């Protein structure tokens, strides 16, 4: 089998058209969705993502502000900034770019963001709401994966989904979203014994480990759907995923590339969440 490539860039564009329409509706009601991004320090990769987020906001007619803080900024100062943004009516979404410098407690920072502006979906309140199937901001990468599958017409109920990686921002929540849609979910991680035994059972395999070319043809069942969440740089400095694309694409049924797979969906769902937050702010007052 030769896999059909899931074009995340194209699906992201389609979703952004829908989001832009909602932005126009909200503007007519007097609210322009606004996102605040806080960037601490001078991480090169972070800078690229942040620039892409700002670009996406402006293309959709949204407001965005970028707050840059020095690597040495104190936790106190960062928390004070977040407290101020929590109270700023024009700001509907707050994103603190991760990772943060070591002297800052990430958990404390995430918990200081108002759950009603937590468009990353990282706050424990949103995670709890997601787990119990309530209205919540869903984390952008997992949510983007669900939209990719929906738009590709891949049915989820009853499917065996194997997630490799158990981070709080991708692995754990994506498994939960699949469970919410009646999949059978297996989590694998660095302590899993006989990884191929598990991954070969996957109808849908999600690779979120952060190691280039980690998932090979031997890990994959014929015709499986392969979702590659990895954003790595290889020795040549080229962007690559967690999946050995060429060999796996020969065996899989569907596969997401890197770039132009999951990445563009992450930013799109961030825009979606910010617009959702703006709409919900209207209902509150
Ligand atoms: N609080 C927080 N929220 C995040 O959502 C968050 C974060 N911190 N820290 C960093 C990661 C990474 N991330 C990406 C978003 C888009 C692409 C993306 O659009 N990638 C393009 C390629 C971009 C390129 O060329 O470098 C693609 O895959 O096609 C990648 C990575 C969001 N993150
Ligand atoms: Mg792991």
From TrEMBL:
Function: Catalyzes the oxidation of 5,10-methylenetetrahydrofolate to 5,10-methenyltetrahydrofolate and then the hydrolysis of 5,10-methenyltetrahydrofolate to 10-formyltetrahydrofolate.
HAMAP family: THF_DHG_CYH
GO molecular function: methenyltetrahydrofolate cyclohydrolase activity; methylenetetrahydrofolate dehydrogenase (NADP+) activity
Subunit-level organization: Homodimer.
EC number of this enzyme: 1.5.1.5, 3.5.4.9
Catalysed conversion reaction: (6R)-5,10-methylene-5,6,7,8-tetrahydrofolate + NADP(+) = (6R)-5,10-methenyltetrahydrofolate + NADPH; (6R)-5,10-methenyltetrahydrofolate + H2O = (6R)-10-formyltetrahydrofolate + H(+)
CDD domains: NAD_bind_m-THF_DH_Cyclohyd
Family to which this protein belongs: Belongs to the tetrahydrofolate dehydrogenase/cyclohydrolase family.
UniProt: NADP(+) binding residues: 165-167, 231
Known pathway: One-carbon metabolism; tetrahydrofolate interconversion
GO terms (BP aspect): L-histidine biosynthetic process; methionine biosynthetic process; purine nucleotide biosynthetic process; tetrahydrofolate interconversion
Keywords: Amino-acid biosynthesis, Histidine biosynthesis, Hydrolase, Methionine biosynthesis, Multifunctional enzyme, NADP, One-carbon metabolism, Oxidoreductase, Purine biosynthesis
Record-annotated Tetrahydrofolate dehydrogenase/cyclohydrolase NAD(P)-binding domain positions: 139-280
Any one GO CC term of the record: cytosol
UniProt cross-references to InterPro entries, sorted A to Z: Aminoacid_DH-like_N_sf, NAD(P)-bd_dom_sf, THF_DH/CycHdrlase, THF_DH/CycHdrlase_cat_dom, THF_DH/CycHdrlase_CS, THF_DH/CycHdrlase_NAD-bd_dom
Name of the molecule in the record: Bifunctional protein FolD
Organism: Neobacillus cucumis
Domain Tetrahydrofolate dehydrogenase/cyclohydrolase catalytic, first and last residues per copy: 6-120
């Amino acid at each position: 089998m030769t896999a059909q490539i899931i074009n995340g860039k194209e699906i992201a564009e389609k979703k952004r058209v829908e989001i832009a329409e909602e932005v126009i509706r909200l503007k007519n009601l007097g609210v322009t969705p606004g996102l605040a991004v806080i960037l601490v320090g001078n991480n090169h990769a972070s800078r690229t993502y942040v620039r892409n987020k700002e670009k996406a906001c402006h293309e959709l007619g949204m407001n965005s502000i970028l707050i840059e803080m020095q690597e040495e900024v104190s936790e106190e100062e960062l928390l004070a900034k977040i407290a101020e943004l929590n109270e700023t009516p024009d700001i509907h979404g707050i994103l603190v770019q991760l990772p943060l410098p070591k002297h800052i407690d990430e958990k404390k920072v995430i918990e200081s963001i108002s759950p009603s502006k937590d468009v990353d979906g990282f706050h424990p309140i949103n995670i709890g709401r997601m787990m119990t199937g309530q209205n919540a901001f869903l984390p952008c990468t997992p949510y983007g994966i669900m939209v990719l599958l929906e738009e590709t017409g891949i049915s989820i109920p009853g499917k065996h989904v194997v997630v490799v990686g158990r981070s709080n921002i991708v692995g754990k929540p994506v498994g939960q979203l699949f469970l919410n849609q009646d999949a059978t979910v297996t989590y694998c991680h660095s302590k899993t014994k006989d990884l191929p035994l598990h991954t070969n059972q996957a109808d849908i395999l999600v690779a979120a480990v952060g190691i280039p070319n980690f998932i090979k043809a031997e890990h994959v069942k014929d015709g499986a759907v392969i979702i590659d969440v990895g954003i790595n740089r290889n020795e040549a400095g080229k962007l690559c995923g967690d999946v050995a694309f060429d060999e796996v694409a020969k065996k899989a049924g569907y596969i997401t590339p890197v770039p132009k797979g999951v990445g563009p969906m992450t930013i799109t769902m961030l825009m979606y969440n910010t617009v959702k937050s703006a709409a919900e702010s209207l209902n509150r007052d």
